[in-house]
Amino acid sequence: MSINTTNTFRPRRWLTGLAASAVLVAASAPAFAIEPFTADYQATYMGMQANGRMTLSSAGANRWRYSLDISNSLASLSQKTVFEEHGGKWRPISSSDSSKVLVKKSDKQAEYDWAEGVARWSGDVKEERSAPIKLQPGDMDALMINLALVRDVEAGKPLKYRMVDDGRIKQMSYKVAGTEQISVSGQKKQATKLVNTDGDKQTIAWVVDGMPVPARILQRKDGKDTIDLKVTSVD
Q1: Whose CA, among 119, 153, 157, 224, lies 20 to 30 Å from 32?
Q2: How is 57-74 classified by DSSP, letter by letter?
Q3: What is the rounded distance in angstroms from the CA atom of residue 102 to the CA atom of residue 154?
Q4: DSSP alpha helix (H) spans, the chain
Q5: Ranges of residues in the chain whose predicted pLDDT is under 50
Q6: pLDDT, tens digit (0-9, with 9 covering 90-100), for 183-212
Q7: E-state strands within 63-215
């Protein structure tokens, strides 16, 4: 699934998908059953080891609660999104993004008001990103891209998304870069490799058939690895 805490321990909200980041434009939703899961990750950031976990659980009334948590002894990151299925599409309802690196803290919240058609942010948001943004059908926040990538690869859909996150709009486009064999919990798995390039930043995700989230998410900047998440187990 988005790490960037003043260049410390926080992924760009994707999730970017690493996150990633993650996202639907004009494609109709494929038949994809959403089911609860818990995925544990081994995380590496600038040589630091950390533990990561993604979870998806029901929030009732066609709504789902999706979260990413990463932590070690020096830093922690928590990203949470509530989204719903509406008209065959997924759309965010609310999200939060908090991080702590030593004594530095950041805490942001977002509300996606589909009745009014705008998204709003509060908390530690840059002034230039604090204004409401007009929503369009298919908009997603960054964290949801992780789920959308798996869904759309399985259905053979275009991997193009409009991300409305952190007070901004960004067009996201992933390209299929072939298949690779990767190790998941000591077992060899065939994975579809997806690549998104945004200036000097790059997000790479490996999607394994039957796994609800990417088996690995790698973020790079200026050609150097910044965050690497590898699945260790999925329940």
Answers
A1: 119
A2: EEEETTEEEEEEEEE-SS
A3: 40
A4: 145-155
A5: 1-31
A6: 998 899 999 999 999 999 999 999 999 999
A7: 63-71, 75-86, 89-101, 104-113, 118-123, 133-134, 160-165, 168-173, 175-184, 187-198, 201-208
